[in-house]
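Severity: low
Component: inverse-folding endpoint
Summary: output formatting inconsistent between runs
Steps to reproduce: submit the following structure tokens with default settings.
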């Protein structure tokens, strides 16, 4: 495909003359007129302000998302669409089609040429060169449609995962509008190519100047494109006639029912009124008991139903061998939790579903995820019935960081408390030692003074008893006794 003459941005222009003089008839006039009409349709679509606005929106989105979304698949799909749009601009298809309009005679010139019998028309090399341009543009439009569809699918998948919802809504709406416009250009190029072939045969029959010797132009655009893209060239039938027929049939039925209404009245047997005696002294306790038993049975059955569903889900999770199977089971359980209004379980399972989709992408690339699958099974079983402490892998990163901070704070406070207690204990030991030393020193001083007094008492000469009595009398006398 790369070596084909139509698959080039700048197709070499033929060196022959651009216009030739040939016999002009009413058939030639009709062919040129239809050719100019189809050419004008293509130019109008390419130069439309709506298409240019959507292309500018595409450029703005790519400019804004260039840094933050560079690794995103949707961004890569938009970049591929941008490449196709830039290639269409570099082809300068509108310039080539405008040259065709300038070379073809206008309405006044065609009227005069019919009278004269001759007119200047585009030459065979010029028409074959334009056919190559149209074929390349049609192939480029089919490639653009495929890339728009691929980017649309990726963006819709992210919306399903509830990721960047508003941004993906904008992208999907823009891609759908671009797809419709490019499909319109593809259909108009197909009709223009058919008119170019018709006019080319007439010019080649009058003035043969072959330009393409190694390449034969296809007879139809559907043969040139792949079958999936050729299907887009088939115009879908409108449903207006069928809807109008259905409405007319319904109106006829209503009219017939109204016309048969007054004549075909049927008397219905409504029965006879029966008088029932009301006893206000009746006891309602048995009835209330029955109702209470019914409600209790209902709640009991609901609880058993939920428990059975959870056990079934846990069994499916344990039997899942890949993350793809796990994602299918999670999707089913999320829908069931939403129907049962189990918000906490639904939020936890939705978080696990996002994680499971990321693991699925890694698994598709060829990584071994069996160890991750084991821990993921525990998380899914806990999320189905969240009781007790959550697994570490199921906690959010913010909560884990907060818990780690609290743990470090508590550890620092404990270490500070322990260090302070150790310091106070050392101080108390030092104080006790000092007190003990002081007591020992004081006791040793007292013992030394006692020994000294003993030695002095023993050293003094012992007097007689009479002398001691005299000393005692002197003491009492000095006291006035």
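Observed output (run 2 of 3):
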């Amino acid at each position: 495909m790369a070596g084909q003459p139509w698959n080039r941005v700048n197709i070499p222009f033929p060196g022959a003359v651009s216009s030739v003089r040939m016999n002009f008839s009413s058939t030639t006039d009709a062919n040129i007129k239809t050719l100019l009409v189809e050419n004008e349709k293509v130019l109008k679509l390419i130069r439309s302000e709506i298409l240019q606005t959507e292309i500018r929106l595409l450029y703005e989105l790519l400019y804004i998302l260039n840094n933050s979304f560079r690794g995103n698949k949707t961004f890569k799909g938009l970049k591929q669409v941008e490449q196709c749009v830039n290639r269409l601009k570099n082809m300068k298809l509108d310039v080539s089609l405008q040259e065709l309009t300038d070379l073809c005679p206008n309405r006044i010139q065609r009227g005069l040429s019919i009278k004269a019998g001759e007119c200047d028309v585009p030459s065979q090399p010029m028409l074959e060169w334009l056919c190559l341009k149209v074929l390349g543009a049609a192939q480029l439009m089919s490639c653009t449609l495929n890339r728009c569809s691929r980017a649309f699918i990726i963006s819709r998948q992210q919306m399903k995962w509830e990721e960047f919802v508003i941004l993906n809504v904008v992208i999907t709406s823009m891609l759908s509008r671009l797809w419709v416009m490019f499909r319109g250009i593809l259909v108009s190029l197909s009709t223009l190519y058919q008119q170019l072939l018709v006019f080319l045969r007439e010019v080649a029959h009058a003035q043969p100047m072959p330009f393409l010797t190694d390449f034969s132009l296809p007879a139809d655009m559907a043969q040139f494109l792949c079958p999936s893209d050729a299907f887009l060239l088939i115009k879908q039938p409108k449903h207006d006639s069928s809807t109008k027929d259905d409405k007319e049939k319904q109106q006829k039925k209503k009219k017939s029912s109204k016309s048969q209404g007054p004549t075909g009245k049927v008397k219905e047997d409504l029965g006879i009124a029966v008088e029932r005696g009301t006893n206000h002294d009746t006891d309602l306790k048995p009835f209330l008991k029955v109702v209470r038993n019914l409600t209790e049975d209902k709640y009991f059955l609901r609880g058993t139903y939920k428990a059975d569903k959870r056990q079934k889900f846990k069994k499916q999770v344990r039997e899942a061998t890949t993350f793809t199977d796990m994602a299918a089971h999670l999707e089913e359980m999320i829908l069931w939790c939403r129907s049962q209004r189990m918000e906490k379980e639904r939020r936890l399972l939705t978080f696990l579903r996002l994680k499971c989709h990321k693991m699925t992408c890694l698994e598709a690339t060829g990584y071994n995820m069996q160890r991750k699958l084991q821990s993921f099974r525990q998380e899914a079983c806990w999320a189905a019935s969240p009781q007790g402490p959550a697994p570490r892998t199921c906690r959010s990163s913010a909560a884990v960081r907060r818990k780690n901070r609290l743990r470090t704070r508590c550890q620092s406070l404990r270490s500070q408390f322990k260090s302070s207690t150790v310091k106070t204990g050392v101080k108390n030991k030092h104080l006790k030692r000092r007190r003990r030393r002081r007591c020992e020193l004081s006791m040793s001083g007292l013992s030394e003074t006692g020994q000294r007094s003993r030695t002095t008492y023993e050293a003094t000469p012992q007097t007689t008893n009479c002398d001691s009595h005299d000393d005692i009398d002197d003491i009492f006398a000095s006291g006035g006794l």
